Amino acid sequence: MRIPEDKINRSHGTGAFNITDFKKIGQNVIFEYGVLVFHPENIEIGNNVYVGHYTILKGYYKNEMKIGDHTWIGPQCFLHSAGGLEIGRAVGIGPRVVMLTSQHELSNIDIPVYFSPLVFGKVVIEDGADIGAGSIILPGVRIGKGAVIGAGSVVNKDVPPYEIWAGVPARKIRDRSKTE
């Protein structure tokens, strides 16, 4: 099988960065040891943001990653912005959370999935939401304001504001605005 020239693997670089490389960066942003950043020129970070140890901020040559003020990103997270990623203000993101914004198109069975074109889907995490440890947010998903995602969940569809979702795939557990 001949590999198309545009599909030959190439390095994305080291992930090393300088604060001046970012499109925009606020005050009091903390990057713990081992954080890697790719395409910082397409990443905006607000004020008072914490990025935990060994997290990867995987910017992309197109589309943007925006992280709002007072957001906390736990260690070993992977945030990918090929399709666009927007994280609001005061969002909590637990350790080992993965946010994906692209996937391979699957309709052509005559070529390996790896060589299939990418399909992009922006991920939006609205203000005050909380994403539990080890959760995976799939392309095109919107997590509503104040919503909570339980640890280890796989979110494949939009979550309305102030709802608690958990599971694989994630489903509604209850509404935060109602007492039970």
CATH architecture identity: 3 Solenoid
CATH topology: UDP N-Acetylglucosamine Acyltransferase, domain 1
Based on CA atoms alone, the radius of gyration comes out at 17 Å
Any idea how many domains?
A: 1
In the sheet with the most strands, the strands line up as: 2-5-8-11-16-19-21-22
**Helix residue percentage:** under 10%
What is the CATH C-level name?
Mainly Beta
Runs in which pLDDT lies below 50 for 5 or more consecutive residues are none
What's the SSE pattern?
Answer: EEEEEEEEEEEEEEEEEEEEEE
The biggest beta sheet, please?
A: 8 strands, mixed
Oligomer: single chain
Termini gap: 60 Å
**Residue-averaged pLDDT:** 94
Shape: globular
Structural class: mainly beta
How much strand?
A: 25-35%
Total beta strands: 22
SS summary, helix count: 0
> What is the name of the CATH superfamily?
Hexapeptide repeat proteins
Description:
- By secondary structure, this protein is mostly beta strands.
- The protein has one domain (14-175): 3 Solenoid (UDP N-Acetylglucosamine Acyltransferase, domain 1), CATH 2.160.10.
- It is 0% helix and 32% strand.
- It is built from no helices and 22 strands.
- The protein has an 8-stranded mixed sheet, with no helix packed on it. A 6-stranded parallel sheet has the order 1-4-7-10-15-18, with no helix packed on it.
- The protein is globular and about 60 Å long.
- The protein starts with 23 loop residues before the first strand and ends in a 5-residue tail after the last strand.
- The relative contact order is 0.11.
- The mean pLDDT is 94.
